[in-house]
Amino acid sequence: MNQTALINGEVITVNSKNEVYEACLIEENKIAAVGKTEEIKKLVKSSAKVIDLHGRSVLPGLIDAHMHLFLYGNTLMHLNCKDPVITSVEELLSKLSEIVQKTKNGQIIRVFGFNELMVQEQRYPSIQELDHLSQEHPIVITRTCGHIGMVNSAALKLADIDSSTSDPQGGTIEKDGRGRLTGRLIENAFLHFNQYVTYSDEELFNALSKAHEQLLSYGITSVHDAGGFDENSFRIMQIASHKKLIKTRIYAMIGSLNDCENFTKNMLNAGVITHTGNDFFKIGPAKLFTDGSSTGPTIATREPYTSDENNYGYLQYTEDELYAIFSTAHQNGYQITVHAQGDKAIEQYLNVVERLLNEYPREDHRHRVEHLGVCPPDLQEKAKALKVIPILNPSFPYEFGESYIRNYGERIHYMYAARDLLDQGIISAAGSDAPITTVNPFMGIYTAVRRLTRENTAFGQQQKISLMDAIRLYTYNAAYASFDEDDKGSIEAGKLADLVILNTSLLNCPIEDIPKVKADLTMLDGEIVYANEI
């Protein structure tokens, strides 16, 4: 029997008592024991691998409860405005010009992570500027939120969009005052457009491989994938997991970034039900988008934006439409969830869940809501009554907090309201929504504890939570959100040996240094899958 013993450290179990031990023992792919170093040493065979932690922390394998594997992997393969940071439209156009020179005619050029608020000119590149770069290469610039795109004429031609094309429900094909296309596509207009700029199988496999490597380096052993591009990317994800081309455990939501409604309906009709699969790949909840981007800003709010008294954002469905789609899913035993950022969208979804549970009661349904951005007390209470699981994005206030303050005003005091939800006894989990913001879980933990923006502006300080509570968002609670709390999410005998050894003691680390914490070793299913230094 293969044994690995971790001794002389800080084993943060995240069990029901939040106990911290010195050591633990792994046998094959399971945790065999936790306790004091001397207790564990008595159980160790001579053939065992023994790792002296020298005071470093051990955490359960971290779980990102909401991210986009394919989209994240693609940002590692294409021009990403965040890494390294592009500071101006002029710089972006210069880099694009270099890429055009190296790219075959007709091949799509992709850019990710653009934010008009973070460049000197405080604007998008114009369609004229992009057309000047190339008439032969479709150029697609995805805004940091993933809900808005800027494209050139060659890209519009691929999607058969011209000045006479009507706006889709819940989206805008932007035109100027003279009715000419600007190249900016908002919400459903951009999400539908992406059906025409698809990826090859090779590109999809490469994206998964790149994402997988990065996740393991952060100690992330499980992800809840919040939607790929289409049916084909969903197929590729299953193949990659089955063939062990990626080892990260995946809980795959039934939803997509392109034409989400039809994809979700097709999957539901196929009868593939939530939690079908194995320890490495399981089907997750049926998912739809109900509103837009918190940074767009395009979320659906009950009151107008502080920055624009005429703007209430985008609502993608009526309540009856949402109910009609989810009714069969709920009755047939699926977990369901939605992307809902604004209070109007959250309220609509909770109304639907309430109707479903009244008409078709279900125990332990664990229906979720992704993001739960602007959630005032009345909606918190409703979420509690319905036992809905919020999936928060703790990193968002750090990266986007200044725009939230400008657009939502006092509503920031109950955005991603971790403290309120905890006090209500609502089990909440956390996800990065990568690549919308950093995949680094320690940035999320730090922001959940400090609630400061990148500019050090206080952001809804009453929502600060303790370090241990923040760790729980990325471990036990995230496992609970996928019905997996009996198998992972804490370091307890009998659970899967998914662990991460950090490069320091997390409990004694200065709070301001938490974002710099690294994984020295990641263990998944009892196997060391990443080792920086042991």
Give a concise summary.
By secondary structure, the protein is of the alpha/beta class.
Q: How would you characterize the overall build of this protein?
A:
It is a single chain. This protein is α/β, with parallel strands linked by helices. The protein folds into 3 domains: 3-61 and 495-531, Urease, subunit C, domain 1 (Roll); 70-196, Diaminopimelate Epimerase, Chain A, domain 1 (Roll), CATH 3.10.310.70; 290-473, Alpha-Beta Barrel (TIM Barrel), CATH 3.20.20. The protein contains 17 helices and 24 strands. Strands 8-15-16-17-18-19-20-21 form an 8-stranded parallel β-sheet. A 6-stranded mixed β-sheet has the order 3-2-7-22-23-24, covered by helices on one side. Strands 9-10-11-12-14-13 form a 6-stranded mixed β-sheet. Helix 7 (201-217) packs across helix 8, helix 10 (319-331) crosses helix 11 (343-359) and helix 11 (343-359) packs parallel to helix 12.
Sheet with the most strands, sense and barrel status: 8 strands, parallel
Could you name the ranges where pLDDT drops below 50 across 5 or more consecutive residues? none
* pLDDT averaged residue by residue: 95
Q: Which CATH top level class of the largest domain fits?
A: Alpha Beta
Number of strands: 24
Can you give the helix content as a percent range? Answer: 25-40%
- Order of strands, main sheet, comes to 8-15-16-17-18-19-20-21
- The share of residues in extended strands comes to 15-25%
Summed up, the helix count is 17
What is the fold-level CATH name, i.e. the topology of the largest domain?
A: TIM Barrel
